[in-house]
Structures are given as structure tokens and as C-alpha cells.
């Protein structure tokens, strides 16, 4: 009986149900493919050239200081560095750390975003994120909660770096604008001064802190420290880099650098992107040409029945 | 105690035990003491049917249990558990639990819905109400001791007085409360609630009732059931005395007491053995019934009556054309044959499915290798480097090495969990069901059946007997349609032949036409029927079919038998359907009146032969006659041959009227003639013949009429050695002693001729039996009937005794027309490199002839025939053929060597062989020569097995399947094909005239044979291409996306830090990339349908299984690995030293890197799907571009949810503001996809496949046409 019922339900003769929807059935014909390859080549090579060009214009100076005998841990030191060419403002001052696993899982998750937004978090289950640094002594005592808690916030880079010109005059550097605007606006708010816990510091809106809290992608990373907006004209000649070396990195074979860099529309000095475009462009172009020659010399007639097996 | 229970059921194979069922006695209908009552109740199951898998209470647990039997689910549960441990897990628990929950939830909802549907169906059948005879309330008295065996005497008479007659009555109770032993009354059109023994019916004469069993076995013709004379005669009194008050009627029931011994419940629908011990009340012994009582052995008190399947009405069938019946319930609830038959056929899995399981395990192993590498490296890195990193605070409480290893191991186990394609299995499940849906929608595989409401055939009709059967009311309309459907004389066949390509317009107009005709009037009605997919698991298996085993009758042919010719007494009649036989009688009888001829048997031998021939046709059958509105007899029979015989005799004015009351009434010309039916020996596929023993009421002579296949009948003919004993010997008794060797020879010759024309032949024969001889035989017969052990064997032996020394009358030739499009379909299939075997019970000549007419055999091909009757002969024939084959091959090789001509390939291809083998030779082959036979059969492109028994059918399939390991497909329509259908890798049932048993056992049920080529070469091929694409892509996308993340470990101190956002990880499989594989599997067409329809050889491309191999998966996994390596290291080079992002000197960090990477990897993974897809309809467009859009939307949403996802807050927005981001995404997409694209182009341009060439051709032609 079931069969009878089914038969009364007559499937509609719609294009969908009969799988006859209008469709585009692309076939890779030589013409469009060759043209596409050549066009990709023609478009990509100039783009790559433009990127390399602007990347090359970026001036970047990387100065390691932790291996400087004058700059031992706990010392203040000055390094003289001569710029071969002058750097147009704005010049960005970065510190760079090597072999520092800011992207280690244990490290990345060890933060409490609620706390960082100035909210007093006393629920230990929520604070679990901060492991292994929740309280000062590991107990579950509300008054001993670390503010801020977690590994990231408790390992903030604390070397101070300043620049001076050859004559020893401090160069005016700005701190404002080194962090992401969205972080400043929403993600970080000062902790109440008399809030719960052992407050190491409550100034979470400090941009240096915010920059540190955005964990790096790779174990060698740099972070924006100060910006020179060019009040004293372009940087040139010898500059003094004054460093207060407080941050220990030797235990994990880390290295510390100061980086001075200008930028372009593409960002910093970035050879990869430009070369990638050029290489891909060349490969496509060559492929296009090869296929075109092959097609010219011995074309395969599309859909010709003479290639069918039984006709050979 | 012979009561069955669950434990004892196990014994049924070892020994036959019969449960006793007592009715109309005291104490809950059973003879047991009070203390046993509870126990007994539990022994018989109640009649509540529950086909649901779950109850509302155990659903959650049971369903979860079922689901977590799947190993992928277990795997993801383990992963989820790991993610719940924050110490270890790199992933948020939501990333695994959400997708797992989604998958489990969806499956559970689907299960719950299906189960709810079953529950509702159960409920409606459980709550139907039936009239049950209520036992009188017993007046308390001493208990009887329990019965210990069936021989225990029935209760003493005094006890009967101790009940309250008033309380006994018929009462409506719900179906679920029906118990074994209840006496039940069922009205017309009511369905039967349990298996019941028919006691009596409203048909007063012989207690016959009609039952429709379409729900049970799909056969829409009415079946006849007959109550035992003893029980019926008792009830007859009740029914006759209609004037009696109800109470008095009920008293009759009280008097009906006894017990039934019957088999344990089993699932055989067509066999039942039992005995009814009826307690006789002396007063009730009916004197009229002495003759009937021949059958019963009357003891002092108890009448023992044998019961058979003729009395057993099964649950699920419906009473038709009978006012009411009475019966006793013998099997209830889950003991009913319907329930016992509801076990689903063995589940079959496709080759692809098995490969997926192994591939998943392969991926799992790959993953475990990565996990172990990560654990080792991770532990080393932790020990050497990160432990020294003060900022990680490890120094405070450094873990022991063991703990580090364990933690790293589990962390990476979870971290890499998504390398295993989680959603693949559920995607495939949905995909296959949807594919099945599209198959069912396919109009080109539908069939339009015109059902004529009026008979086209008109003939004189005597209206006298009309009243008796004319109780058809409105409810029977449906029934009539079915009858007429069976009797169609014309038929519409949709002109959608597969080899023709049909334009859309054509199809449309055809459908419009149908609409018109179906709307235009009641005269005829068009019923659309669609194929059904029972097991969509096998969709892709269809593409691998190498062997097709086909039944002939009803599968290749219409199974609409037309009586073509006959040979009577050695004389051929070419057109018996045009009253030629009647004319034979009429013409030559100048001296006698027509009626006289009939009664006297005619003058000439020819006339006598013709008359006996017609009587044989009208009486020796198992058909049921009914009258339609116009009083025209309509016959119903499980065998279409019988119907054609009856229709032929009807046209010759020998009309079968009814079989009633042990009598067969026929109408000869206008005169009615009655035969007493003494016994009938029914047709079975083993016996291959049927006989009836009749007594002519007028002459009191006993005749045996027999018909059957020539192979069995010829040996039963009376061999008269005296050749001279001819014409002169005829006496008034007709042909009784007339058996001319000449006629036998002639008839044999005619049979051969008919067979050569492809006609089905039957031999008709008869003999007269002396009354004494018959009575002797009948006595023996009855004594056997009452025994239960070995009953069948003994009866068979007795029947053999009687069916001997027969006189040949003639033979019939019935044409079974080939279905429309069969030759084209077979040709198409053969060209598709599929080997087609036809397995038929026909004679060799018929089979070969059919073989030629359906293009299975061709005159240009060499034909081998194996036809042996001994072991040695068979071996010799096989060896001959093998030598022959070797010779031919050597010749070909020589030719090839002599003339290095490429065209030789062509010659070789054309050199096809065909093989014909008969059933007898197969016996030897199965015994000894399987290998030899198969070595020949493998070289033959077509094989015909003729004279094959149903058991051999499945043996052949099994043999080929086992030896060749190729995918075998069986197609058949009848019950005898079921074993073959279930044996093959794919079983296809044709929904035909022989009921739906075959189609119920099948994986796909078709309406016409010609749909097979579309099912295999189009739907099967597409399913394979589609599923392969879907599976490949599922492996690829998971590998690509999550291997990138693994590579990040190198730079994260092997800390299993994730690169992507949790939200992206969660939604990657469930949302972002869920749609493309699904759409690929629904709509993809590598080659247009029309190309496939014209080029059968394209099937080779999928048939060799190269579309989906382990290599395929390996390749896609490697492709994925390439892409992830390229993408990760590209990213690494860009982010070296934490790259400055924009001209404001901003630095991104981990979050930005993750966002870059997710963007370009997701987009290139989706575009990879776009490269794979060759058929873009608007849904596919929406699916692919929509998925990219979906990614952007998800990224934007996670971007804005500060409190719940602070990590990704504004990250994506920031990326979107960077020029570098766009440049990076574009170049990475090109880098990862250009190799794929180039290799695709090279492959298509320089190494094109056959199908691609034809597709190009098709597309170019299409473009030309458009321009």
C-alpha cells in the first residue's frame, strides 16, 4: 500500500528535482588559460616590483645591546650608533627580543581579560586563566590576588630606552599611538586604586603595557616602543641610544635589540611579499608562454573525436 | 509442557515442538492452575506491536549508546574529554563539543523523528478495535491439574455446566489486548490483527474467504483461504439460524472447544502446520457431512483436523469480498509471521564506504605519528629551552619528565584531532540519502501505467451467478483498479528510451499529455510510479558493477502472458484466441448439436482432444474468479500464465465460473457444468506441475488433469509401446486410453518449434482414475494429512503415485513480450563493459531465442553451449571450449605478430563470446568444475543459464562474486529471485506482477528493466564521481587547515598553541566548509548526461574503480600538505621578527598572524572546491561564494564580542584595514592553488580522458548551436 501512496505523490517536474538546473560547465580551453596566466604575470610582476621598491626605501637599523659589555644587566649605558643615511620622520623605535616564546601556550593564555578591563575579579574559577600566577603565594586568598595576574602581565619588558643626538640632547619621542586604538578604547581600563588584591600596578591604560600584552606571533619579535615625529628634523649622523638594562634574557639565551625603522605604505622592511609577487608573476607568465608555444606548435583540437581511444 | 517461550525457541531447529493453544476453555483460555497463570501469560507474547527502537524514557541513553558505537564518535568523545582538562588542552572545550554535539544532536533528531513515526503507526494498529468472543465467567470450582502433554484428556463434561452463559458475548476490544486462543470476528475490509486460524466465513458453501496481502508480500491479487469443513459446518449452523437470538448464537461458541497444536512461531509466510483437536458435541454431529468427514479421524470425543497455511490468515492482510469470518488467534504480537519477517535484510556496504573506514584509520595513524613526534620534540624543547624561561614560571615547580610526556601527548592528541575528518561520515550519510531522493524524483526512471476502468474485451455473459459475488461496495474501488491493472490489454509505455536523448521540450510535452489524459475522464487513469531507493549506501557501488545477473520472466519481459498458439493432439492451432478452438468443435459437427458434442465428447479425435484441452485449461489452475460490474469474469492468480490460459478458454466459450464448496463450476457454451474437486496438487517450483482430481457429477467418473513443464511431464506420460494402437481405439470416454506415440513425437516437435520462437510452453495431460483406486489413494492421503511429521514428503510421494501414466493432450505456447527498451538496454550495458548473465528457468531453445531477441547474443559472436547430463560429459565439454578459446587467442596473437597492425585491437574487441549453460550442467559445475567454468565465463561477455532452479540462481551469483571479487548486481522480480538479490553486492527488484517480495528484499526497486542502464551508468556514475569528490575534499580541507596549525608548533616551542581563533576552529567543519562538499555530492556532473547516454563505453572510467582509490585520498592529503606547508612558511616569512603592518608602525602579533592565516587558508580551501567543480548551477554558486561570505561574517562576529572572545576583539577589522593583508591573501591563494590549476590544465590538455573529450565536443556543439 505504501507504494500506491508514493505513486500518488508525483515528484514535480522541476529543473531542480530533475537535476536540470541551468548550469555553467567550464572546460579549461587553452585560450582563456594562456591569457589568464599571462595576465597574472603582467599584473603581478609590477605589483611585486612596487612592493620591493617601497620595501627597499624603508630604512631599518637593528642594534643589539645586551651583548654590549657596557650594558650588563642592571646597568645604564649609552650606545653610539651612526646612521649612514638620514631617516625621515616619522621614525619608529622598537625593542626586539629573540628566543622569547611569547607565543607559548602556557604564556598566551595566562591572563585575565576581565581584570585588565578594570573589573575586580574575585572568583577563582574565572581567575584560573591566570595560572600559574594568580595569587602571590599560590593560595586561594582573595586579598592575595595578583593585580595584574598571569604570566604576561608579570613579565612586562622593563628596559627603558631613550635617544639623544650626537650632542647628548634627548630626542623627543612620543609614547602615544604605539598600541592599537581598539585595545586602548575597550580592552584595557585602569584597575581601581583600592581594588581587591595585591596591586603591583593599576595603570593598565599604559600603552607600553598594552603593547606587551598583545602577544607576539613568533619567538623573535619586536614591539613598538616610541615614535619620533620629527620635531628636530630627520634623524641623521650619530645618535646616542641610552638604555637602562633591567630585563633578564640571558637565562634563556635571549637577545635584546633596539630597532629604528621608517615605514612605507606596505609597512616595514618586508622583502617576502614583493618577491612572492614577482616569483608567482614570472612563473605564471612563463607557464602562459610555454602553453602558448605548445598550443601553437601542436594544438589539440578541442573535443575532436580523433583522440578517442577507439579511433586511434 | 509444550508451551513455547523465548528460551525454547532456540530449540526449534533441533526438534519440532508444537505449542498448544487452547480455546474456549476455562481459566484465561488455558488449562492451567492459578499459580501458573502469570507464567503462562508471559509465555505467549501479547498482541501489542512495538516496532519502535526506543521508548520515551530510554531514548537518550539508548540513542547515545547506539551513536557512540561509531568509532569516529568515540574518538571525538575522547578528544572532548581531553579538551575539558585545561591543564592539558590547547583547545577550548567548545571547539570539539559543539561540533560533536551538533552531529550527535542531528542524528538523534533524525532517529527520534523516524521512531516517532513508527510509534504513531504502532499506536494506530494497537488501538484498532475488534470483536472478540468473551468467555463466560466461570463459576468457582475445583481446579484442574495442569496439562502435562497434549494427550491429556480434555475437561470433563460436568464442568461445562459451571459457567454463566449470560456473561459470554462478543465484545469490542483493542487490538493490543487480543490474546492467543481468542475467537475473533473480522468484518469485510478489516485488517487482520494477528495470525489467526480461519474457522468459518460468511461464504456459506465452503467457508472460503478472500484476503489481500499487499502489506505482507505486496501481491495485490486476492488470495483465497478456506476453513476446515468441520469447523465451518459448526459455524454454518450459527450463521444459518439467523433468527436465533444473539445469546443462542453465543451458546454455539461455548460448545466449540478444543486445542490447537502448531509450530513454533517462524518467519515462513507460506508454510504452516498444525492440528486442531476439536471436542465434538454429539448432538452437533452433522449427518450431511459424512462425506467431508472422510478427512477426519473420529475418535470418541475429539476430532482431529489438520491445519495448513490454507487456514492461516496472517497479520497485516486485509479481508476482502467476504462479509465476515471467525477465527482463532494462534500467534500474537511479535510471534506473528509479519513481525518475524520484519528483520531488515542483511545490510550491505559499498566498496567506497569500506575504503573510507580504512582511510580514516590511515589518517588516524598519520595523526598519531605526528602526535608522537610532537611529544618527543615537545618534551625535548621543554626540557632544554622553555624550562629555562623564567617568564613561563616553570622553575617554581618543574614537572617530571613523565608528566611532561603525558601532558604533551594528550595536548597534541587534542590539538591534531581535526586532521581526522569529523563531519565526513555524517555528510556522506546525508549526501547519499539526498542522492537517493534525486533518483526517486527522476522522471526518466518513472513509469506511467494506464489503468483501464472498462474491459476492452466483451463477450457473452450469463448473468445468473452474478448476485453471489456482487457484494462489492465503494470500498472495493481500489481493489477493482488493481484487478484491472492485472488484466490490462493495452499499456502505455513512456517513450523515454534510454538510448535516445530526450530534449526537455519532449519530456515536457509528454508530461503535459499525461495531465490531459488523466484529467479528461474516468475512463482510464494514469498512475505514475517511481523507483524507490532502499539502501542509498550503495549509490556509488552502482558505478563499479561488472556483472549483471538478470532474471528473465517479468524482468526482461512484461510478464503479461498472451496465449499465442497451441498444439492439440499433434495439430497446431495458430490463433486460439480467435475462437479457433471453438470453431474446431463447431465446424466439424454437422450431425450433432453443439451441446451434444460437448457432453458426448465430440465426433472426431480432434474434437475430443480440443474439448479435453479446454476443460483442462478451465479446471486445472489455482485462479480465483470474480465478476466486475458488467458481470464479466475476472481472474486472479499468482501465475500470469494461468490467467492467459483462462482467458483463452473464456474466448473459446469454456468459462471458469467459480470454485466453491469443493466444486468447480464451469460454463461450456451456455451450459453449466460442475465438477467435484477431490484433491488438487499445487504448483511449486520444485514440482513444476499442477494436477487436479475431478469427479464429473453427471457421469461419476474421476479424472486427473495435469499441466506442467515438459521436462517433468514427458516422463509421466503413458508410454505405449504398441505403435499400432491408434485411432481405432477411441471409445466414448474420450481420450482415456488413447496415447499415440506419433502424437507425442509431433507434440515434442511442436514444443521445440514454439521454444524457438521464444514462447513458453506447458504440457497438458490427463487420465481417468478408477473410483476404487482413487478411494484407496485418498484414504492414505487422509491418514498422512493428520500426521505432522514429514507430512510434505509423504504427500509428495503419494502425489507422484497418482500423477503417472498420463495421456498427452497437447501443449500451450504463451508469449511473454519483451519489455520496451530491453534490447537497447542490454546492448548499452554490454557496451558499458558489463557482463550480462540471464538466469532463467526456460528451455534452452527459448532462452537462446530470447537471448537473440534482446541482443544479448549476436550472430557475429561465437556461442558456446554446455549441455550435459553426466559429470564426464560436462568435463569434456568444458575442456573443449577451453581448447577452443585458447586456439582462437593464439590465432589472434599470431595475427597480431604477423601484421603489426593496430587495427587488430579492434578485431579483438569484436571477438566476443557467449555461453549458454543449462541447470543440469551447473550441478556438476558447482560440484567440481567451478574454476574451469569461470575461466570460460570470464571471457564471455554474455552468459545464459537456462533451466535453472531458484536455489541455483543465488549459487551462480555467489560463485561469480566469490571468484572474481567484482561487483555483482542481481535484478529480478519474483520471490524466487530474492536469494539472488540478497546474495549480490547490489540487489535490484522490479516491481512487477509477481508481487513486491523481490523489490522489498532489494536495495533499489525499479519499475522497468530499461531503467537499469540509467540507474547504473548515469546515477551510479554520478554518485561515484560525486562521492569521490566529496570524500577527497573532506580529507583535503581538514588536512590543509589543521596541518598549518601543526606547523606553527615549530615556532611556539612545541607548546601546542593554536594559531586560529577558537570560533574559526569550531565553525570550520560545521559551517564554513560544510556546504561545498555537500553540494559537490549533490550536483556535480563531470560529463553531461546526454554525453553519457550516447557513449556507454564511458562507464569504463568509473567501473575500474580508479575514481576512488587509496591513492586518490593519499593524493588529496598530499596536496593538502603541500598547501599547508606553503601557506605556513609564507606566513612565517612575512611575520619574521614580527612584521610592521602599516605605515603607522603597528605590530600585529599572534592574533593578527592567525587572522591572516585563517583568511587566506579558508578562502583558498573554498576556491579549491571551486576548481574541482565542473558543474555550476546557481545553487553551487550560492554555496561556494556564500561559504566565503560566511567566513567573513563569522570573523566579523567574533571580532565584536569583547567579553566572550577578548582574544580576537577587533583583530579581523584591523586586518581588513591593512593593505598588506589583501596583498598577502591574494598572493597566498595563488601560491597554493596555481600548482593544482596547472596540473589540472596539463592533464586535461595533454592527457584528456575519454569522457572529457566527449564533454568538450558536447560543449562546443552547444555553443555552436547557440551562435
From TrEMBL, chain A:
It is found in: Membrane. The chain crosses the membrane at residues 27-52, 272-293. GO terms for cellular component: endoplasmic reticulum; Golgi apparatus; plasma membrane. InterPro entries: CDC50/LEM3_fam. It comes from Dictyostelium discoideum. Pfam families: CDC50. This is ALA-interacting subunit. Its main location: membrane. GO terms for molecular function: aminophospholipid flippase activity.
UniProtKB/TrEMBL annotation, chain B:
The chain crosses the membrane at residues 360-381, 401-426, 1033-1051, 1063-1083, 1116-1135, 1147-1171, 1178-1198, 1218-1237. GO terms for biological process: phospholipid translocation. Belongs to the cation transport ATPase (P-type) (TC 3.A.3) family. Type IV subfamily. It catalyses: ATP + H2O + phospholipidSide 1 = ADP + phosphate + phospholipidSide 2. Residues 273-300, 449-487, 781-808, 871-916 form a coiled coil. Its EC number is 7.6.2.1. The lineage of its organism: Eukaryota, Amoebozoa, Evosea, Eumycetozoa, Dictyostelia. This is Phospholipid-transporting ATPase. Keywords: ATP-binding, Coiled coil, Magnesium, Membrane, Metal-binding, Nucleotide-binding, Translocase, Transmembrane, Transmembrane helix. Mg(2+) binds at residues 551, 553, 973, 977. ATP binds at residues 551-553, 642, 683, 707, 760, 840-842, 947, 953, 976-977.
Amino acid at each position: 500500500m505504501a507504494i500506491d501512496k508514493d505513486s500518488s505523490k508525483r515528484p514535480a517536474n522541476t529543473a531542480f528535482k530533475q537535476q536540470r538546473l541551468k548550469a555553467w560547465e567550464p572546460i579549461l580551453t587553452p585560450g582563456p588559460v594562456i591569457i589568464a596566466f599571462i595576465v597574472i604575470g603582467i599584473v603581478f610582476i609590477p605589483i611585486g616590483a612596487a612592493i620591493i621598491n617601497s620595501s627597499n626605501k624603508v630604512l631599518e637599523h637593528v642594534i643589539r645591546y645586551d651583548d654590549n659589555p657596557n650594558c650588563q644587566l642592571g646597568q645604564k649605558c649609552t650606545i653610539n650608533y651612526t646612521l649612514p643615511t638620514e631617516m625621515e620622520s616619522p621614525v619608529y623605535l622598537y625593542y626586539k627580543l629573540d628566543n622569547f616564546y611569547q607565543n607559548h601556550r602556557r604564556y598566551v593564555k595566562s591572563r585575565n581579560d576581565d581584570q585588565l578591563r578594570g573589573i575586580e575579579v574575585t572568583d577563582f574559577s574565572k581567575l584560573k586563566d591566570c595560572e600559574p600566577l594568580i595569587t602571590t603565594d599560590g593560595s586561594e586568598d582573595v586579598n592575595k590576588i595578583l593585580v595584574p595576574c598571569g604570566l604576561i602581565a608579570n613579565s612586562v619588558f622593563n628596559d627603558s630606552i631613550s635617544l639623544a643626538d650626537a650632542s647628548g640632547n634627548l630626542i623627543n619621542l612620543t609614547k602615544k599611538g604605539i598600541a592599537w586604538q581598539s585595545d586602548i578604547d575597550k580592552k584595557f581600563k585602569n584597575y581601581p586604586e583600592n581594588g581587591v588584591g595585591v596591586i603591583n600596578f593599576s595603570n593598565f591604560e599604559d600603552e607600553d603595557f598594552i603593547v606587551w600584552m598583545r602577544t607576539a606571533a613568533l619567538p623573535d619579535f619586536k614591539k613598538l616602543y616610541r615614535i619620533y615625529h620629527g620635531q628636530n628634523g630627520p634623524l641623521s649622523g650619530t645618535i646616542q641610544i641610552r638604555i637602562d638594562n633591567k630585563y633578564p634574557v640571558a637565562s634563556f639565551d635571549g637577545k635584546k635589540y633596539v630597532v629604528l625603522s621608517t615605514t612605507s605604505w606596505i609597512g616595514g622592511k618586508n622583502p617576502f611579499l614583493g618577491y612572492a609577487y614577482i616569483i608567482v608573476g614570472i612563473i605564471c607568465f612563463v607557464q602562459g608562454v610555454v602553453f602558448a608555444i605548445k598550443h601553437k606548435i601542436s594544438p589539440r583540437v578541442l573535443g575532436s573525436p580523433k583522440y578517442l581511444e577507439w579511433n586511434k | 509442557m509444550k508451551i513455547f517461550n523465548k528460551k525454547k525457541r532456540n530449540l526449534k531447529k533441533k526438534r519440532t515442538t508444537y505449542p498448544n493453544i487452547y480455546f474456549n476453555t476455562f481459566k484465561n483460555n488455558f488449562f492451567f492452575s492459578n499459580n501458573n497463570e502469570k507464567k503462562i501469560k508471559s509465555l505467549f507474547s501479547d498482541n501489542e506491536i512495538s516496532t519502535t527502537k526506543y521508548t520515551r524514557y530510554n531514548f537518550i541513553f539508548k540513542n547515545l549508546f547506539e551513536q557512540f558505537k561509531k568509532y569516529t564518535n568515540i574518538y571525538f568523545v575522547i578528544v572532548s574529554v581531553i579538551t575539558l582538562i585545561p591543564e592539558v588542552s590547547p583547545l577550548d572545550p567548545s571547539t570539539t563539543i559543539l561540533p560533536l554535539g551538533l552531529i550527535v544532536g542531528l542524528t538523534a533528531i533524525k532517529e527520534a523523528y523516524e521512531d516517532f513515526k513508527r510509534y504513531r503507526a504502532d499506536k494506530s494498529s494497537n488501538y484498532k478495535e475488534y470483536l472478540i468472543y468473551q468467555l463466560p465467567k466461570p463459576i468457582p470450582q475445583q481446579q484442574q491439574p495442569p496439562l502435562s502433554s497434549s494427550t491429556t484428556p480434555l475437561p470433563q463434561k460436568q464442568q461445562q455446566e459451571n459457567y454463566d452463559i449470560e456473561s459470554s458475548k462478543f465484545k469490542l476490544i483493542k487490538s493490543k489486548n487480543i490474546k492467543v486462543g481468542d475467537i475473533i470476528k473480522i468484518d469485510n475490509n478489516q485488517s487482520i490483527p494477528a495470525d489467526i486460524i480461519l474457522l468459518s466465513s460468511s461464504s456459506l458453501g465452503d467457508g472460503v474467504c478472500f484476503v489481500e496481502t499487499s502489506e505482507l508480500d505486496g501481491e495485490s491479487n486476492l488470495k483465497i483461504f478456506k476453513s476446515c469443513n468441520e469447523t465451518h459446518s459448526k459455524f454454518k449452523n450459527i450463521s444459518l439460524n439467523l433468527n436465533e437470538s444473539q445469546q443462542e448464537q453465543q451458546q454455539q461458541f461455548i460448545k466449540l472447544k478444543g486445542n490447537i497444536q502448531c509450530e513454533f512461531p517462524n518467519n515462513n509466510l507460506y508454510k504452516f502446520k498444525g492440528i486442531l483437536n476439536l471436542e465434538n458435541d454429539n448432538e452437533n454431529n452433522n449427518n450431511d457431512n459424512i462425506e467431508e468427514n472422510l478427512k477426519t479421524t473420529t475418535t470418541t470425543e475429539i476430532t482431529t483436523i489438520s491445519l495448513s497455511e490454507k487456514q492461516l490468515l496472517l497479520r497485516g492482510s486485509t479481508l476482502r469480498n467476504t462479509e465476515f469470518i471467525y477465527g482463532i488467534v494462534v500467534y500474537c504480537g511479535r510471534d506473528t509471521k509479519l513481525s518475524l519477517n520484519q528483520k531488515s535484510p542483511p545490510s550491505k556496504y559499498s566498496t567506497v564506504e569500506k575504503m573510507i573506514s580504512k582511510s580514516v584509520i590511515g589518517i588516524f595513524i598519520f595523526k598519531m605519528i605526528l602526535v608522537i613526534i610532537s611529544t618527543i620534540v615537545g618534551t625535548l624543547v621543554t626540557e632544554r629551552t622553555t624550562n629555562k624561561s623564567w617568564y613561563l614560571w616553570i622553575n617554581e615547580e618543574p614537572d617530571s619528565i613523565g608528566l611532561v610526556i603525558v601532558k604533551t601527548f594528550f595536548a597534541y592528541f587534542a590539538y591534531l584531532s581535526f586532521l581526522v575528518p569529523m563531519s565526513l561520515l555524517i555528510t556522506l550519510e546525508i549526501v547519499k540519502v539526498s542522492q537517493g531522493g534525486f533518483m526517486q524524483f527522476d522522471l526518466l526512471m518513472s513509469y506511467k501505467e494506464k489503468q483501464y476502468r472498462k474491459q476492452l474485451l466483451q463477450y457473452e455473459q450469463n448473468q445468473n451467478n452474478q448476485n453471489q459475488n456482487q457484494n462489492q461496495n465503494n470500498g472495493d474501488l481500489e481493489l477493482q483498479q488493481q484487478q484491472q491493472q492485472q488484466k490490462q490489454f493495452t499499456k502505455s509505455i513512456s517513450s523515454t528510451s534510454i538510448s535516445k536523448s530526450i530534449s526537455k521540450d519532449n519530456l515536457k510535452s509528454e508530461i503535459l499529455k499525461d495531465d490531459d489524459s488523466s484529467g479528461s475522464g474516468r475512463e482510464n487513469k494514469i498512475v505514475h510510479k517511481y523507483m524507490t531507493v532502499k539502501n542509498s549506501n550503495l549509490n556509488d557501488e552502482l558505478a563499479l558493477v561488472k556483472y549483471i545477473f538478470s532474471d528473465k520472466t517479468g524482468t526482461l519481459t512484461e510478464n503479461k502472458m498472451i496465449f499465442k498458439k497451441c498444439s492439440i493432439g499433434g495439430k497446431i492451432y495458430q490463433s486460439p484466441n480467435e475462437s479457433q478452438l471453438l470453431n474446431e468443435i463447431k465446424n466439424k459437427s454437422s450431425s450433432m448439436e453443439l451441446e451434444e458434442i460437448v457432453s458426448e465428447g465430440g465426433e472426431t479425435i480432434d474434437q475430443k482432444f480440443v474439448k479435453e484441452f479446454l476443460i483442462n485449461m478451465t479446471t486445472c489452475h489455482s485462479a480465483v474468479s470474480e465478476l466486475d460490474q458488467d458481470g464479466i469474469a475476472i481472474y486472479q492468480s499468482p501465475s500470469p500464465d494461468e490467467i492467459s490460459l483462462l482467458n483463452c478458454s473464456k474466448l473459446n466459450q469454456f468459462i471458469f465460473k467459480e470454485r466453491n464448496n469443493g466444486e468447480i463450476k464451469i460454463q461450456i457454451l451456455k451450459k453449466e457444468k460442475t465438477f467435484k474437486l477431490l484433491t488438487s496438487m499445487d504448483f511449486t517450483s520444485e514440482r513444476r506441475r499442477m494436477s487436479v482430481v475431478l469427479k464429473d457429477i453427471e457421469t461419476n467418473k474421476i479424472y486427473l488433469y495435469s499441466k506442467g513443464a515438459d521436462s517433468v511431464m514427458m516422463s509421466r506420460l503413458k508410454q505405449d509401446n504398441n505403435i499400432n494402437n491408434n485411432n481405432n481405439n477411441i471409445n466414448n470416454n474420450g481420450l482415456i486410453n488413447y496415447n499415440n506415440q506419433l502424437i507425442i513425437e509431433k507434440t515434442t516437435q511442436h514444443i521445440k518449434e514454439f521454444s524457438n520462437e521464444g514462447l513458453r510452453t506447458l504440457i497438458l495431460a490427463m487420465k481417468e482414475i478408477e473410483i476404487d483406486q482413487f478411494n484407496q489413494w485418498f484414504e492414505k492421503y487422509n491418514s498422512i494429512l493428520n500426521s505432522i511429521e514429514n507430512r510434505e514428503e509423504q504427500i509428495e510421494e503419494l502425489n507422484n503415485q497418482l500423477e503417472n501414466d498420463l495421456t498427452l493432450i497437447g501443449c500451450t505456447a504463451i508469449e511473454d513480450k519483451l519489455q520496451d527498451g530491453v534490447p537497447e538496454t542490454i546492448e548499452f550495458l554490454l557496451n558499458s563493459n558489463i557482463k550480462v548473465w540471464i538466469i532463467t528457468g526456460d528451455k534452452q531453445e527459448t532462452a537462446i531465442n530470447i537471448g537473440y531477441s534482446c541482443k544479448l547474443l549476436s550472430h557475429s559472436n561465437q556461442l558456446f553451449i554446455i549441455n550435459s547430463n553426466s559429470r564426464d560429459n560436462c568435463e569434456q565439454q568444458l575442456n573443449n571450449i577451453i581448447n577452443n578459446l585458447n586456439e582462437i587467442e593464439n590465432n589472434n596473437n599470431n595475427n597480431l605478430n604477423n601484421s603489426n597492425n593496430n587495427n587488430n585491437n579492434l578485431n579483438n574487441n569484436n571477438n566476443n563470446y557467449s555461453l549458454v549453460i543449462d541447470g543440469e550442467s551447473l550441478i556438476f559445475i558447482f560440484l567440481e568444475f567451478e574454476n574451469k567454468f569461470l575461466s570460460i565465463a570470464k571471457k564471455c561477455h554474455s552468459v545464459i543459464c537456462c533451466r535453472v532452479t531458484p536455489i541455483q540462481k543465488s549459487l551462480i551469483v555467489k560463485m561469480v562474486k566469490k571468484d572474481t571479487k567484482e561487483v555483482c548486481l542481481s535484478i529480478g522480480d519474483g520471490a524466487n529471485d530474492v536469494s539472488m538479490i540478497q546474495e549480490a553486492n547490489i540487489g535490484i527488484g522490479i516491481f512487477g506482477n509477481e508481487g513486491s517480495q523481490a523489490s522489498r528484499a532489494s536495495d533499489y526497486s525499479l519499475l522497468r528493466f530499461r531503467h537499469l542502464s540509467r540507474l547504473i551508468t548515469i546515477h551510479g556514475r554520478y554518485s561515484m564521481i560525486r562521492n569521490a569528490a566529496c570524500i577527497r575534499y573532506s580529507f583535503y580541507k581538514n588536512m590543509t587547515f589543521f596541518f598549518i596549525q601543526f606547523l606553527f608548533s615549530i615556532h611556539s616551542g612545541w607548546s601546542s598553541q593554536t594559531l586560529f581563533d577558537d570560533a574559526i576552529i569550531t565553525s570550520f567543519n560545521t559551517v564554513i566548509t560544510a556546504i561545498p562538499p555537500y553540494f559537490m555530492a549533490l550536483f556535480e556532473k563531470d560529463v553531461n548526461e546526454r554525453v553519457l547516454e550516447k557513449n556507454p563505453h564511458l562507464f569504463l572510467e568509473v567501473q575500474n574503480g580508479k575514481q576512488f582509490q587509496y591513492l586518490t585520498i593519499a593524493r588529496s592529503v598530499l596536496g593538502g600538505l603541500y598547501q599547508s606547508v606553503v601557506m605556513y612558511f609564507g606566513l612565517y616569512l612575512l611575520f619574521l621578527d614580527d612584521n610592521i603592518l602599516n605605515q603607522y608602525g603597528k605590530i600585529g602579533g599572534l592574533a593578527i598572524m592567525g587572522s591572516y592565516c585563517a583568511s587566506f587558508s579558508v578562502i583558498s580551501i573554498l576556491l579549491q572546491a571551486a576548481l574541482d567543480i565542473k558543474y555550476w548551477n546557481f545553487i553551487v554558486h550560492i554555496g561556494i561564494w556564500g561559504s566565503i561570505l560566511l567566513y567573513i561574517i563569522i570573523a566579523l562576529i567574533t571580532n565584536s564580542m569583547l567579553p566572550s572572545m577578548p582574544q580576537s576583539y577587533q583583530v579581523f577589522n584591523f586586518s581588513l584595514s591593512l593593505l598588506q593583508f589583501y596583498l598577502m591573501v591574494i598572493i597566498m591563494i595563488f601560491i597554493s592553488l596555481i600548482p593544482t590549476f596547472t596540473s589540472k590544465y596539463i592533464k586535461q590538455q595533454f592527457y584528456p580522458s575519454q569522457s572529457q573529450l566527449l564533454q568538450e565536443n558536447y560543449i562546443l556543439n552547444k555553443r555552436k548551436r547557440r551562435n
